[in-house]
Amino acid sequence: MKHFLHLLQQQLQVLWRNRHEMWQPLFFCGLMISLFAVAFSHEPAQLRALGAPLIWLAAILSSLLSLERLFRSDYEHGLIEQHLVSPFPFMGYVLAKLMAHWLTNGLLLVLLSPLLAAALSVSSAMVPALLWSLLLGTPALSAIGALGAALTVGLPQGGLLLSLLILPLTIPVLIFALAVLEASAAQLPFQGQLALLAAFSVCAVMLSPWAISASLKIHH
Amino acid sequence: MTQPDFIRTQKLSCPRDDLPLFQPLDLRIQRGEIWQISGPNGCGKTTLLHSLCTLFSDYEGEILWQGKSLRQPLPSYLAQCCYIGHQAALHPPLSARENLHFYRQLCSNPLEQPLNDILNTVGLYGFEDVPVQHLSAGQRRRVTLGRLLLADTPLWILDEPFTAIDPQGIQWLLELFIRHSQQRGVVIFSSHHHLAGLPANMHHLNLANFQP
Fold it and tell me: What CATH code would you report for B1-80+154-212?
């Protein structure tokens, strides 16, 4: 545990030093939302209905941006190798990476989402459902994305392949998240749908580290 | 009863694309020895070093550490081993001090020596807090070599440690190897350099003589 916390601190420190890269996905997300707002500006009613799902789409696409770099720099600088020969479990490194990615991506997006919702004039009654679904769904996005990043880490042009690998896997997350949003739009309780989304996230976060670690071991 | 060899390889051969890189090796490495591994490019130096530090396990034969097989990575073995590959293995945005601080957390038996002393020893006085990405290749290599001073690890495995280092640095590193071997440590490194003034406990394995 102490080992994990050290690694997490290290990762966050590295990300903070490169914070201009950290903000890029968020800016991308914000820009996408503004484009949607412009495109639907003549149909405010539609925009209002579509707002929350659009934010989810923007979340998925912007998470792709940060994933390509997730393991690449460590791989190129020989750091993954060092974690493999460290006496501590390699899983600690994988989990620290995942956690750091979620904190600097998923969590920031959750914090930003009320603003995005306001930009798309989503009704304030939907905002709690949107926040909860992002909070419980983005860990799954990080876990699935990290798996794709680990599988493509050794490839010179992994970016596009990464998107092709990950996007189909994010469909279940999107479906569960939309179920939450739909229930909320119909003013029904959405705890059940939220529980399904959370269960999916838990599975993804629990199972993906094994696949990530196996894949990084093959590539190193 | 005799003490088992510190590291012993039995008929070790490392295949690459199903072809062995070198003939089976039977090495017996004892404490207090320095081993230089040389040979032409592509002869398997790095793969041999990777096998010795359990990064590569598709080898044939056996590697024994004090009588225990290393086919599965043993944490107790890795805790005694410091491996430095030919990449610097540093986080570019972090400073030399931060990088070494992080490596100290990865050691299971770190020494208490202040990081400033270590950075002075490797010749980085005044560069402690510069992000590693702004250092020269030789300076980065010196930061990496500072890891050798962080912890009490008997086994040092180094892949091309002299890359990008000036002659004084090479001399310093050789003296460090000799001091380590006098303290019953083991140094295994790969290098093309013809090193002068080597002690008697230095062994030279030229993989060119073992080509299949």
Answer: 3.40.50.300
Name the burial class of residue A172, with classes exposed (0-12), middle (13-18) and buried (19+) by CB atoms within 10 angstroms of its CB: middle
Closest chain A CA to residue B80: A87
Ordered by start, the domain boundaries in chain B are 1-80+154-212, 89-153
Given an 8 Å threshold on Cβ–Cβ distance, is A14 in contact with B93? yes
pLDDT of residue B158: 93
Residues 8-37 of B with CB under 8 A from A: none
- Preferred mutation among A3, A17, A20, A21 to probe B, highest tally of B CBs within 10 A: A17
- Out of B54, B87, B98, name the one closest to residue A85 (CB): B54
Q: How far is B205 from chain A (nearest CA, A)?
A: 24
**Smallest Cα–Cα separation from B66: which of B5, B1, B10?**
B5
Q: Range of A191's domain?
A: 2-219
| Candidates B51, B56, B58, B102, partner chain A, best to mutate (most A CBs within 10 A) | B102
ipTM score: 0.87
Tell me the pTM. 0.89
Q: What is the pLDDT of residue B115?
A: 86
Q: What is the pLDDT of residue B197?
A: 66
Is residue B36 helix, strand or coil? strand
As a whole number of angstroms, the distance between CA B70 and CA B63 comes to 6
**Size of the A and B interface in Cβ pairs below 8 Å:** 64
Mean pLDDT in consecutive groups of 10 residues from the start of chain A, 220 residues: 88 90 89 88 82 90 87 90 90 94 92 89 87 93 93 84 90 92 88 92 94 88
Best CA proximity match to A209, nearest among A152, A161, A145, A135? A145
Q: What are the residue ranges in chain B where pLDDT is below 50?
A: 1
Query: Does A79 contact B89 at a Cβ distance shorter than 8 Å?
Result: yes
State the total domains in chain A.
1
Residue ranges of alpha helices (H) inside chain A are 2-17, 19-39, 44-67, 69-76, 79-84, 90-101, 107-119, 127-151, 158-169, 171-185, 191-219
pLDDT of residue B2: 65
Yes or no, beta carbons of B89 and A81 under 8 Å apart: yes
Tokens representing A103 are 């904190």
